[in-house]
From TrEMBL:
Species in which this protein is naturally found: Paraburkholderia guartelaensis
Superkingdom in the source lineage: Bacteria
Protein name: FAD-binding oxidoreductase
All copies of domain FAD dependent oxidoreductase, residue ranges: 36-397
Keyword terms, alphabetized: Oxidoreductase
InterPro entries the record matches: FAD-dep_OxRdtase, FAD/NAD-bd_sf
One GO molecular-function entry: oxidoreductase activity
GO cellular component: cytoplasm
Gene3D superfamilies tied to this protein: D-Amino Acid Oxidase, subunit A, domain 2, FAD/NAD(P)-binding domain
Length: 443
């Protein structure tokens, strides 16, 4: 029997959720249901798995259990980049990777983008929710410039399209002269993550049932199926897709291989768009690994625009952060905002939040049939909008016995490497994050 030792707790809500109208969550589970497949976790991985299952067999009975509310978790807290090309790369990272593997990664990312694009078409979403606008990888000094140049060489080697921009050109896009160079790649899609995942959740009906405020408390084998208990109900399911990211460990699975790292974001109040030149909407990842992600979010006619700043990483093995940690990260965000946008002096941050990520030492997913009938799509490795989406699709296909290209690639990943023992792990992880953040400086 697998019993949850811990459930997710959210201290705050993200600016993305706060900016949306209130939504009535789906009811919690209060009876016993039978399902072909039960999915634990309603983030990118879980809901993408549900969508794939219903595409493959619309008659399949699927039950999704979400511990909290849709968009409360990391899926509604991220910066909204569904990237096609890896972005946190240094020349060393890229140089050491086999180019076939890189192409596999890119193909996987594009399969995730295809799922999101189909949904966007189905829903008739505008650019405020799903914007296939590409992204900039921006530098703020000589070290960053070197990364930009190196990234361009690596993109040449995988024959991917890009455009290099000098300081003036990226200034015309962003309205600030703070960036020294940039590289534009056209394939990334930018989403309003909370609206996206709510839309995906609300697309289910018929034989796919979603229950919110319904944490899986335990699951155990009952003959040929699995019985999952929630506080007021139960699900008997032939198969389980485990899509609760770092909380897989709370059931005793993937012990000693998941690194629980938090990252932080702040979003400004709406400001008069005439205060900042350039385009009204753009999205930039840092050229320098561990640097700062920045987005300008265009408001509607009544509202103004906002700037999102995402930076800072902390290692939190207990899978929770304090208000103090969010405040400390917020001070860093304020400095980074001021350095980039001196013309927006006086504009304050309206929302601040943190979110959990599950990484592995060797950057591979924790994927596969962990017990007969239990298919894991765990370890987003920080880029879950693409990787967890793809892992969810692959887990759905594997659960139905398919041996697709995607399933083969996911099965072919190395197994996650064991983490060093405590206290070396905490000391090492904290020191490593601090050194990398320090070397990123204002980038
Ligand atoms: C500030 C920030 C910015 C980021 N920016 C980006 C970005 O731009 N692009 C990108 O690709 N990634 C980004 N990420 C990472 C990305 O958000 C994650 O990789 C992604 O959300 C992982 O998706 P997931 O479905 O695997 O897990 P999660 O989003 O963590 O979803 C898991 C779900 O499982 C639920 N759950 C847990 N335990 C149980 C249980 N016992 N029963 C039922 N449900 C349970 C949780 O409530 C949660 O909703 C960012 C993260 C943060 C915090």
């Amino acid at each position: 029997m697998f019993v949850a030792s811990k459930l997710p707790q959210q201290l705050d809500r993200s600016g993305w959720v706060a900016m949306l109208p209130a939504r009535t969550p789906r009811p919690s589970l209060n009876r016993t249901l039978n399902a072909d497949v039960a999915i634990i976790g309603g983030g990118f991985a879980g809901l993408s798995a549900a969508r794939r299952l219903s595409q493959l067999d619309p008659t399949l009975k699927v039950v999704i259990l979400e511990a909290g509310e849709i968009a409360e978790g990391a899926t509604g807290r991220n910066s909204g980049f569904i990237i096609d090309l890896p972005h946190e790369v240094s020349s060393e990272d890229y140089g050491g990777t086999d180019s076939d593997e890189r192409r596999h990664d890119i193909k996987i990312h594009r399969m995730a983008i295809a799922l999101a694009r189909d949904l966007a078409v189905e829903k008739g979403w505008g650019k405020d929710i799903f914007d296939p606008c590409g992204k900039y990888n921006v530098a703020m000094g000589p070290q960053g410039d070197k990364h930009v140049a190196s990234y361009a060489r690596q993109l040449d080697s995988v024959k991917e399209e890009y455009r290099l921009l000098d300081s003036e050109e990226i200034g015309e896009v962003t309205g600030t002269r703070s960036f020294t160079s940039a590289i534009f790649t056209p394939g990334t899609v930018i989403i309003q993550p909370a609206a996206y995942i709510r839309g995906l959740a609300d697309s289910f009906g018929g034989s796919v049932k979603l229950f919110e405020h319904s944490p899986a408390l335990s699951f155990d084998r009952q003959g040929a199926s699995w019985r999952i208990k929630t506080p007021n109900g139960a699900v008997n399911a032939g198969k389980i897709v485990l899509a609760n990211n770092g909380h897989a460990q709370s059931f005793g699975l993937f012990r000693g291989v998941l690194l629980h790292v938090y990252t932080y974001a702040s979003m400004t109040e709406a400001f008069d768009p005439t205060r900042l030149g350039g385009q009204r909407s753009w999205a930039a990842t840092p050229a320098f690994p561990m640097g700062t992600t920045v987005r300008r979010v265009q408001g509607d006619k009544r509202d103004g625009d906002r700037i999102l700043i995402r930076s800072r990483y902390t290692y939190n093995p207990r899978m929770q952060v304090s208000d103090g940690a969010i405040t400390r990260a917020g001070r860093i965000h304020d400095r980074k905002f001021e350095a980039r946008f001196p013309m927006l002096k006086g504009v304050r941050m309206q929302y601040r939040w943190a979110g959990a990520m599950a990484l592995t030492w060797n950057g591979v997913p924790a994927f596969g049939e962990v017990e007969p009938g239990i298919f894991a799509a765990i370890a987003c490795n920080g880029v879950g909008a693409t990787k967890a989406t793809a892992a969810g699709i692959a887990a759905a296909e594997a659960a139905l016995g398919m041996d697709s290209w995607l399933v083969q690639v996911f099965r072919g990943f190395a197994t996650p490497k064991p983490l060093p023992p405590q206290p070396f792990l905490t000391i090492g992880a904290t020191a490593n994050l601090s050194v990398k953040e320090w070397s990123a400086g204002m980038e």
